[in-house]
Design goal:
Blueprint lengths: L6 E5 L3 H15 L7 E5 L3 H4 L16 H8 L5 E5 L11 E6 L7 E5 L13 E3 L3 H10 L4 E3 L5 H9 L5 E5 H6 L8 E2 L14 E6 L3 H7 L5 H17 L7 E8 L2 E9 L6 E8 L3 H17 L2 H11 L7
Parallel strand pairs: 1-2, 1-3, 6-7, 6-8
Antiparallel strand pairs: 3-10, 4-10, 5-8, 5-9, 11-12, 12-13
Length: 319
């Protein structure tokens, strides 16, 4: 904590990141005898390197590592992240203290005309910065012209409304959190367009040895969201190699069982590998389920597909 006894929350300064940090602040303030809370803005590589597609940069944690390093250095006490941005292996000394209740995990299409994906004109210009979205878009609409898309959520919507794109794909959760859900033309079905691992979930980290801070974060943890995202993150951890992967996955709790669906898609849309499994909803089973489905996908050729996509695209060295 700071010298004044306040919990310092580290966050990016984008509208969505600030919404998430303030949401955590509100939840902490709602606890009995809660300490004061301060929000600290931290600029990340993903904020600075806005001239390069994220998929072209080697490494991961573009939007998280500077915040996590500030946490380790004692400059902040809490790090709030979109869990989908958080590396599947945390830096030594950090703990994922809470996974908040998950918002809608699906992707949303925002189109200039209000048309659904299937109704967009031939050759429609669709913006996205995600390899996963590019792959599944190409599979569903091979005629579409896919364009790079960077910037915060409001800026992206302004660009599609201004005619730079006919449509863009964004996380439904971010649109809902910012009160922009009226722009959604279609929620893309997870069986055809699986979301990113942990999409819609907020992860809250603390130093593992900071028991005082961790005790304020534990009550914020949502068991169902933690189990689902643990399975998804275990799957990704087994498949990834330090780069973005054209993988979609979604864990859900149904009938007292934890179910996980996962798909890997070639960037040209020609191959889609899928796996589904279920297990009892315990932390150990969640991790085992994710790893089991990863092995199933690897047995079907996911490793070769991911390696081919990685080798075929241009990379930019990290500074």
């Amino acid at each position: 904590m700071s010298a004044r006894g306040a919990l310092r929350i580290g966050t990016r300064a984008s509208a969505l990141a600030l919404w998430q940090a303030r949401h955590v602040e509100t939840l902490i303030r709602g606890l009995p005898s809660a300490p004061p809370v301060e929000i600290v803005h931290i600029k990340t590589e993903g904020d600075v390197r806005n001239d390069v597609p994220l998929w072209a940069v080697r490494g991961r944690a573009f939007f998280t590592k500077e915040i996590d390093r500030a946490l380790l250095a004692g400059e902040v006490d809490v790090a709030v992240h979109s869990l989908k941005d958080l590396a599947t292996v945390l830096e030594d000394g950090l703990e994922l203290a809470a996974v908040l209740t998950r918002e809608d995990p699906r992707d949303a299409l925002v189109s200039r005309s209000g048309a659904r994906l299937s109704a967009l004109a031939a050759g429609a210009r669709i913006g996205t910065s995600s390899l996963r979205r590019r792959a599944f878009l190409t599979r569903l609409r091979p005629d579409a012209v896919l364009l790079e898309l960077r910037g915060n959520v409001p800026t992206r919507i302004e660009r599609v409304q201004g005619g730079d794109y006919d449509a863009i794909v964004l996380a439904a959760a971010g649109l809902r959190r910012l009160g922009l859900q009226q722009h959604i033309a279609e929620l893309l079905p997870p069986d055809e367009f699986p979301p990113a691992v942990s999409q819609g979930a907020i992860g809250v980290c603390a130093r593992a040895d900071d028991s005082e801070t961790v005790r304020w974060l534990r009550p914020l943890d949502d068991p169902a969201a933690r189990l689902a995202t643990a399975a998804e993150r275990a799957l990704l951890r087994r498949l990834e190699g330090g780069c973005q992967v054209p993988l979609g996955a979604l864990g859900t709790t149904l009938g007292g069982m934890l179910q996980l669906d996962a798909s890997v898609c070639a960037l040209d849309g020609s191959v889609k590998l899928t796996a589904r499994g279920a297990g009892k909803p315990t932390p150990e089973n969640a991790v085992a389920l994710g790893e089991r489905l990863a092995e199933e996908l690897l047995a079907k050729g996911a490793g070769e597909l991911i390696a081919h996509e990685r080798d075929s695209r241009r990379s930019v060295d990290e500074p």
